[in-house]
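Consider the following assembly input.
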Amino acid sequence: MTAEILAVGSELLTPQRVDTNSLYLTQKLNELGVEVTGKGIVGDDRARLAEAIGEARGRAPLVILSGGLGPTEDDVTRDAAATALGRRLEFHQEALDAMEARFRAFGRPMAAINRRQAYILEGAEMLPNGRGTAPGQWYADPKGVLMLLPGPPHELQAMFEQQCIPRLKNVVPPQHIATRQLRVAGMPESDLDQLIAPIYTRYQNPATTILAAPGDIQVHFRGRGSTEAEARAAVEEVSRQVEAALGDRVYSRNGESLEEVVGRLLQARGATLAVAESCTGGLLAERITSVEGSSRYFAGGWVSYTNRFKIGRLGVKQQTLEAHGAVSPEVAREMAEAARSAAETTLGVSVTGVAGPTPDAGPGAAGPKPAGLVYIAVADAAGCQVQERKFLGERERVRWQASQVALDLIRRKLG
Amino acid sequence: MTAEILAVGSELLTPQRVDTNSLYLTQKLNELGVEVTGKGIVGDDRARLAEAIGEARGRAPLVILSGGLGPTEDDVTRDAAATALGRRLEFHQEALDAMEARFRAFGRPMAAINRRQAYILEGAEMLPNGRGTAPGQWYADPKGVLMLLPGPPHELQAMFEQQCIPRLKNVVPPQHIATRQLRVAGMPESDLDQLIAPIYTRYQNPATTILAAPGDIQVHFRGRGSTEAEARAAVEEVSRQVEAALGDRVYSRNGESLEEVVGRLLQARGATLAVAESCTGGLLAERITSVEGSSRYFAGGWVSYTNRFKIGRLGVKQQTLEAHGAVSPEVAREMAEAARSAAETTLGVSVTGVAGPTPDAGPGAAGPKPAGLVYIAVADAAGCQVQERKFLGERERVRWQASQVALDLIRRKLG
């Protein structure tokens, strides 16, 4: 079975915005055995969108629209779909009630124009939106299915997952799919590919895909079979060999993020954590606390951005700073140990470095230190380990990679 | 004048790949005064691509194709364009010679299949490729222009810059473009639109686009004119009225981010800043320090995640925590004042709240507090202001909106 995806919105025809909803949708459709055969991007133009919907329905039995369901004049998806299908839009009190309840729950008045969002295609099912005001729509006729989904990714994803996938399973011929995802920290993509390409290129099934971000690589396997066992066996055969080749660089086998793995390990060991950051400026703490329930193992942290703060608030020795500079293994060590001791935690972790882009940027470099130079320290009852790294790239990329290495060191310490 | 862009390649219909060539092309076209009115992504399917080219040419005088010009069976762009135009493909010895010279220069033998790339549409101009083997093509007839460009971005960009832009200048009526961008914090999109739609909808020129993220909205104006002054006047007329309607909610007129505006204002006032965060977990400090040179005004911060840390490390009073709970205006106030006093800064800012998703999640809620409830405090020499907010959505979204409000309060304090 095939699908076409239409993203709606004039902002998607500017140089700034790219449609990413279709990537999520494609992944979910592929998992059901549906191939995406075309994608289109249409501005806020009712007539053109109606035409595009008609054309897409002429080619594919599943057509998915994202965006254009808001309350403003520019939101033309409902009207365009009605034109394309030759159907009326009907007012749904139920949809309006849900919107009003949502606004009430947050103690805000609902603007009158939101009423527009309560119009549903004649014959369509309304898809409730748990994360926003615009309801989605599911319209099915002998020609195929048309789905209208909201544009904001977190709304679209929740709605597709909860409302569309169960309905699609009644429409799409069953095919068994098994997937596995290995995540690897701190390895360049080319090194990883050289190591594992000799394995995965020998197999058509599963399909193997590598997604690389700086310091973080995902290896996806997607196996197909006429039974679930067959699909799983295909994945198993290849992923086992790839895992063996990658060893302990693999931090997750089930989609868990590195911060989730670290949180799970800390809880399992009954351990607690405090951090002291300089160049990452709060990013390490932010990533750790992005995990729900992190207050069970994360005590807190210091963003010790100036030397004065490092000395006065965190307890780094002035003479250490003067002798070695803020970006040094000695200061990294004192920061990690100070964090651990002041917060009374099992582990103390620190990051100090030059985020860049200028070599002398970053706080308190006593001597000139190059952009990208970072020291990361992990202290526990047994002592303190310090690592030196040199990262390439922009400020944001250096900071992100430094937080990645810090998290991976915690993982290895606990693993 | 309008253009449509078609990206060709089955890899662009996978969950991993997104077409980015169209962003570059859109920017360059906009600079010439050309609007992109639609984009499409087509797989390696000759018949479907021929149909898509014909449809696009029926709608827009400029049609640009990227990709599908390689030497393999899967590269169908030449054939599809020939079918769509009803033109033959002609062998160009000149194109083959250029390819052979390129291979020779790299000391490699040219495979026989590369010969396919030397076929050019009858009546088209060959566009030499300085960075790869596939030549591009420029085909013009009374209906419009069709451009065939290679898929790799560095090849496409060089070819478009050197070969297409000079030709387009002879085709596109000369037009001047002026732009302005207003950024607004802490206002729901529907409220903003209700306020400013009565203004901007009265004008076709400039074009007004609204890009909304939670707690952050961009309003883009793009004016056209036969002179630069005319284009600028069109933008000025509308943006002035919109600015007046939005008042001090506008934090930037030139594309500066909120963290950059805050940094600039702190420097201009010779002021310094420290933060104490609970539910944002380091995000506020991370955003402040994402700005290069932030060490000139940012002293540091505390991520006081547990009550014990709030009391022991930051100096919040135990009885305040017990009487009001960690998520309370009283604790927000003590956190902001403690940060300011300990770091000896001009301003101290704090955030405490329930990031969610569960109501009792978040550190140390003495009584039950709903997810999304956040207190933000700003302390200076004159005293301390506290704001209560209730944010919608997921954990990450609540945290981001809380950091946004905190930054906006600092801006207003300094403004």
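The radius of gyration of chain A is 26 Å. Ask yourself how this observation constrains the way the partners meet.
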